[in-house]
Amino acid sequence: MKKILLFFLLILHFSVKAQDADSIFITPANRAVLMQQLIRLPCKIELKDKVKTICDKIEKYLISYKNDPNFADDKFAKVANLQALKSVKMGGYGIGALIYENKSRKILYAAHNAQMTKLRSDLHGEMAVLNDFEDNPKNKKYRNKYVFKEGLTIFSSAEPCPMCFIRIATVGANTKFCTAGPDDGMTQRVQCLPPYWRDLASKISIKKAQSSPIMQMIAHVLFYSYLLDNRHI
Ligand SMILES: [Zn+2]
Known about the structure:
By secondary structure, this protein is of the alpha/beta class. Helices cover 45% and strands 14% of the residues. It has nine helices and seven strands, in the order ααααββααβββαβαβα.
């Protein structure tokens, strides 16, 4: 009887843990909900912490984080999250992006959202890294005119929005993202596009990366970090 009871308690324990992990990905309605999600991270964040302290604690955790070998994309998720954090620390939105070579897995470019810091409406994380990459003449070898040759991947901390999705479809590069964007992400809404863009998007793969739950959680909270000080317009 004791063994049966223990078994059910274990099931309950793990199902609650799973629910905890799942609930962190629910879009936070306000600062209080986001704070609860932040406190659940293993970064020792407390309710009284100000934005700077929260950023410092996440940064400390990320820098010491060892990539989980069970998740092939953890290396890229960590760098994208560090970029996202850099933006938050500068008063911007928490999205980071990079471009890497598939064969060598070398990161060629990394950038972050710069809408607030540069006051440019187009500078989402993905757009910023694509601009940096395309502006360097040395990268012509990776491209056929403006379209990417095979062998490069774009990686974002968060699911591409409609604007970035169309740019990515235009350059024709496979893309991965760390956390889904239930409110603004485009990957589940491809059918809403006009036929030309739908066809173009069908030629590439834009999907969720294989990154650890903790990298996904950090990408999620950084995406919604604008709620911490109402920096969202
Ligand atoms: Zn975007």
